[in-house]
Amino acid sequence: MAGGAFLDAALHLSSSSKGRARAFLRGRHIRHYTPERTRSYEGMIRTAAMEALGDREAFDEPVELILRAVFPAPASWSNRKRAQAYTGSIKPGKKPDLDNIAKAWNDALNGVVYRDDSLICRMALEKRYGPRALVVVTVQPMTMVSHRNVPVQSVPFSVLGESNGSGE
Question: Do 104 and 40 touch, CB atoms closer than 8 A?
Answer without folding.
Answer: no
